[in-house]
Write a structure and sequence with these properties.
The structure is a single chain. The protein has 428 residues and is of the alpha/beta class. It folds into 2 domains: 5-175 and 252-426, Alkaline Phosphatase, subunit A; 183-243. The protein is built from 12 helices and 15 strands. It has helices spanning 5-15, 40-43, 88-96, 116-124, 152-155, 173-181, 186-211, 216-241, 260-276, 305-309, 315-340, 398-408, and strands at residues 28-33, 46-48, 51-53, 68-75, 133-136, 145-147, 150-151, 160-162, 165-166, 282-286, 343-344, 347-348, 353-358, 374-377, 388-397. The strands form 5 sheets. It has a 7-stranded mixed beta sheet, with helices on both faces. A hairpin with a 2-residue loop joins strand 2 (46-48) and strand 3 (51-53). The protein is globular and about 60 Å long.
Length: 428
């Protein structure tokens, strides 16, 4: 799925401009989230440092062993109960990229934190046509209760623009294609953008009038709404000033494929293209809602994923769970292969990326949030020493890794979530 001549020309032109993003080989980062934990017996590598071997679930990554690190020992304290009782799936997903313990509510007063991808997007997102790209295989939800008194917003979203505003992901490859490359000629595109801006202006004016008639609590909700409107307006204005990228050598997808693997690979193709063409440098990919009962019939399984994760030590269930984990890693390896095949001078897009794959739960049967299954692929533009299994001290915060990634993206933060410092072990 290499880009066509127009795309190559566009990339070459950008690369010839001193100081341009393409000339600097921009650094990208993406975060993949898998629900329900893993079969840790088949996940965990043997050995540490440079002397290690993949566990069976990670074997699809063998071709990329020298371009990734398997990381053990990290913990997500914000996903623990901390006095709130049940709801580990809701906390796992909502804390995965925020590091924050979510407010236990099934109402409209949801609260988590700003996710690491959106912290980066708020700083560098203006440099690209899209600040970030959010993808997933199961639709996002905001309303209703989904896990022991927790809102559905928590189990089905990992990207959070603000503590009270989750950022839903796209599931339809056709819609993602249109968002990345446009579905109209340039004149029609500009007209539609102006129409959207006019509608947003009208909504903003109307909300200001409404504000004078509301009490404090409702005004706070309206403020969140108007903040979102302003952010959309800003993005529309950025889109107006940036020409739509050339169309790739990829036919527009017909919609959501019936085959689960094909669905994931299509979305991976689109995220890879968005990185290669510098449409965005930040992405998230939610393989499933935490607590998902998706049935992997493509693997010959009739049991729901969540049910299998509560294996109780049953060897048959553990074997089936290992099959699911292996399949998920296969699709991730496919994505890495796409990035590795995209040349940037003497490097590749994978070399100039940080791609995290993991979960907010390790063993789904125990719902524990320590010793998380994490893979960090890519060399971070030469700032990450790869080819290792790094086993950190128990309870090292996952947010320490995020703080380290933000630093490499040029985002300087003193703390993130429950971080206690940066991970010097990643440094070359």
């Amino acid at each position: 799925m290499a880009p066509n001549g127009l795309v190559r020309s566009a990339l070459a032109s950008a690369a010839s401009v001193p100081g341009s993003a393409a000339a600097a080989s921009p650094l990208r980062m993406a975060f993949f989230f898998c629900p329900n934990g893993m079969n840790m017996k088949t996940w965990r590598p043997e050995g540490e440092g440079l002397d290690w071997t993949f566990g069976p679930s990670l074997e699809p990554l063998a071709a990329f062993k020298d371009r990734l690190n398997v990381i053990s020992g990290l913990a997500l304290n914000g996903a623990r109960a901390l006095g709130d009782g049940g709801g580990d799936h809701a906390r796992s997903a909502s804390a995965y990229l925020t590091g924050m313990h979510p407010r236990k509510t099934a109402g409209a007063d949801i609260r988590a934190g700003v996710s690491v991808d959106q912290v980066a997007a708020s700083t560098i997102g203006s440099q690209t046509r899209l600040p970030s790209l959010e993808l997933g295989l199961e639709r996002s939800s905001i309303a209703g209760e989904c896990d022991s008194g927790y809102s559905c917003a928590y189990v089905s979203n990992i990207a959070w623009r603000s503590p009270s505003n989750p950022l839903p992901h796209e599931v339809n490859p056709a819609d993602v294609f249109d968002r990345l490359f446009g579905s109209d000629d340039e004149r029609t595109r500009q007209r539609r953008l102006l129409e959207r801006k006019s509608i947003l202006d009208y909504v903003a004016d109307d909300s200001r009038t409404l504000s004078r008639q509301l009490g404090k609590a409702d005004q706070d909700k309206l403020d969140q709404f108007t903040s979102s409107i302003r952010e959309i307006e800003r993005r529309v204005e950025v889109a107006r000033k940036m020409a739509a990228p050339p169309r790739p050598d990829m036919a527009k997808p017909a919609g959501i494929p019936e085959d689960f693997g094909e669905h994931m690979r299509l979305l991976c193709d689109l995220m890879a293209l968005s990185f290669q063409m510098d449409i965005t440098r930040i992405g998230t990919f939610m393989v499933g809602r935490d607590g998902s009962e998706h049935t992997y019939r493509n693997l010959g399984l009739a049991d729901g994923h969540h049910s299998l994760s509560h294996h109780g030590g049953n060897p048959v269930k553990l074997e089936k769970l290992a099959l699911i984990n292996h399949f998920q890693v296969e699709q991730f390896a496919y994505f890495l292969g796409k990035l590795a095949g995209m040349k940037e001078g003497d490097k590749t897009v994978l070399d100039n990326s940080m791609i995290l794959f993991g979960a907010g739960i390790s063993d789904g049967n125990r719902h524990n949030h320590n010793d998380l299954p994490i893979v960090l692929a890519g060399r971070g533009a030469g700032t990450i020493h790869t080819g290792r299994h790094i086993n950190f001290d128990s309870e090292t915060p996952l947010c320490n890794l995020y703080l380290s990634m933000l630093e490499r993206m040029g985002v300087q933060e003193e703390r993130f979530g429950d971080s206690t410092g940066k991970l010097s072990e990643l440094t070359v």
